[in-house]
Amino acid sequence: MHVLWLLVSGMCGLISVCAHAGEADYQLPWCDAAGGVAEYVLPDRTRVDCLTATHAVEFDFAPKWAEAIGQALYYASQTDRKAAVVLILRSPKDERYVRRIEAAVASAGVELDIWPLKDEILLASEKLKK
User: Fold this and answer.
1) Which of the chain's termini has less CB crowding within 10 Å, N or C?
2) What ranges do the domains of the chain cover?
């Protein structure tokens, strides 16, 4: 099993309205910065969120961690790339989903790179509310 942790932060500088950002608001700038192809269409008409030279990357908000695993593994199998998930964390509580995906991947013994993406501006605003 190979799990690579890459913490990407500060994406909100590239996103106009972080608090209400959709998946594509994270996916498109990330994919562009990684030199990938966003929304790469496979022969069966499914779409890889970002296809790089080395990875088939699935983007999902943290609560959808389980779904992201299956999609990333499928896209990797269809593209001969490594599977990866960018898990978008919008709240400090979302860290629990990182632990869940890590445990599931370890238990299954699959190769999946997990890259948590913290929405720093949103997380900071949550702290101010306390």
Assistant:
1) C
2) 11-129
Closest by Cα among 115, 105, 45 to 75: 45
3-state class (DSSP) for residue 41: strand
Taking alpha carbons only, the member of 61, 89, 102, 41 closest to residue 50 is 41
Residue 39 has a pLDDT of 97
Coil vs helix vs strand at 73: helix
Residues 107-125 pLDDT 10s? 999 999 999 998 765 555 4
In 3D space, the residue among 25, 28, 7 whose CA is nearest the CA of residue 15 turns out to be: 25
Angle at 113 between CA 67 and CA 10, to 5 degrees: 90
Instruction: List the structure tokens of 58.
Output: 């699935």
9 with 29: CB under 8 angstroms? no
